[in-house]
Amino acid sequence: MEVLEAQQGTYQLEDYEKMRESFDWEQTKEAFSWHRTGKVNIAYETIDRHVDEGRGNKTALLYSDAKREERYTFQDMKDKTNQAAHMFKEMGVEKGERIFIFMPRSPELYFVLLGAIKVGAVVGPLFEAFMQDAVRARLEDSEATTIVTTPDLVSRIPHDDLPALKRIIVAGEQDLPAGDIFISLDEKMKAASTDDSALEWVDLEDGFILHYTSGSTGKPKGVYHVHHAMLQHYQTAKWVLDLREDDVYWCTADPGWVTGTSYGIFGPWLNGATNVVRGGRFSPDDWYGTIDKYNVTVWYSAPTAFRMLMAAPKETLDKHDLSSLRHILSVGEPLNPEVVRWGWDVFQHRIHDTWWMTETGAMLICNYPSEPIKPGSMGRPIPGVDAAIIDDHGNELPPNEMGNLAIKAGWPSQMRKIWNNEPKFNEYFAIEGWYVSGDTAYRDEDGYFWFQGRNDDVIMTAGERVGPFEIESKLVEHPSVAEAGVIGKPDEIRGHIIKAFIALRSGEEESDELKEEIRKFIKTELAAHAVPREIEFKDKLPKTRSGKIMRRVLKAWELDEPTGDLSTMDDN
Ligand code: WTA
């Protein structure tokens, strides 16, 4: 068994075993102000606390994209987020209201997201690639009252049929579309006060964020998190990211996904680190350039990105000085041992895998800088959290046996509900005392967990989580498509790609042009990242007698594997 030894050095988590024995979450509370007030606000703790404790002049945000390059101190961030908070308050936004944020990365995204949380609202980040139907589904389900967006994206917000939606706030200098519903972000921000008075103190169990994510059946679900989560954002960013105040930290995830909020906003800033945000698209030259330019010390990214960097020409790597890096981490998909070895070769650092989910709110199973790494393993549970492999009845399985990866229920950043969908929420906790993740894994004799796969049909493609159902539903809206089944097909770089099996309506001709047209249909109506890279036409699709497409059979076809029990299949 390959083991990479613990790193020499001093780390925030010095002795894993000892901390597992002695730690409880009450200790973390002392870092924050509610210890004094009994009330909290995660946005205050993230930004304002640093100003109140004398760190106002420290750089909080280093933002850049192809056009802009800006730097904000904690004092600047406090002023800007206060202005956003006043803007929302003056519009009459009330505690608990859902405010959606639908914009590409920019400093303004961070101002409005934190400003909304300051007034006690629940923010809903939406990935910029979503098209009209995806936007509608999320706004409808959450009954959002407000959405903040940019001129490029505003036409994708279908406000006529969303009765709850009262305000569309548009950033940028362009003229607003006609209608009372449209408001200029720049004007309102300029006019707003920077004082503290818009800040609402709330309870630990009050909500602050709603992240929509995909399952294998049904519509996207709104995963609801409460201010309490900050304990775990703070503590894991300390232990696992090993963040200190002098770190320059870069999380490559977009805030439309949970990694981009928990560890692109809260984890680093709760610890007072300098946070790098790079807008625009991925390119190896740009990414290495970002590390070089800002002297990034701690870097949190994903296996697909590492694999794409691996495939880039060596000259791209050699052009840049990456010696500032001291700690590298990964999340979202299985991290191949090969990638860990590559990281060791090119950066002289071990890449540390971390495991968690939108529903878990923060990291749960991780590798630590002070501990040995087994390449291919996700690591061990953080102190304060218990994980196990259980069978379908809740019995814990012995080492090296594969089963359901489950977490002892009740950690601070655990989701508190699925918006409007209690049955869905309860499914995760159907086995008394446990949260069942939907991943299969095993645990070895040393307590390290090894990921084996999803036991549902959720597709992880290029680190993004995509539900087959939403794509299938859209596909069958295309006039040529009769039936569609969508699966993840293993792919060397992206982990999985999206593959659609399609049965055409009678009279329709199979052609490459039609495949292209169907792809374009998904891209313009749903989202670019949901487009099936591969489409295969079939005369008919395998279905159960109740008419459900059997994705399991599609997967077996794809992988040339036995199709298993077909007794429920409809053979007409
Ligand atoms: C997968 C992302 C293997 C897993 C933070 C999980 C991983 C899903 C790892 C959640 C890992 C996450 N190794 N697989 N280290 N981390 N996953 O909600 O299948 O977008 O259930 O959260 O990603 O995806 P989500």
UniProtKB/TrEMBL annotation:
GO molecular function annotations of the record: acetate-CoA ligase activity; ATP binding
InterPro entries registered for this protein in UniProt: AMP-bd_C, AMP-bd_C_sf, AMP-binding_CS, AMP-dep_synth/lig_dom, ANL_N_sf
Gene symbol of the encoding locus: acsA
Species this protein is from: Alkalicoccus luteus
Pfam families, per the entry: AMP-binding, AMP-binding_C
NCBIfam families membership: PRK04319.1
Domain of life per record: Bacteria
Protein name: acetate--CoA ligase
PROSITE patterns linked: AMP_BINDING
Keywords: Acetylation, ATP-binding, Ligase, Nucleotide-binding
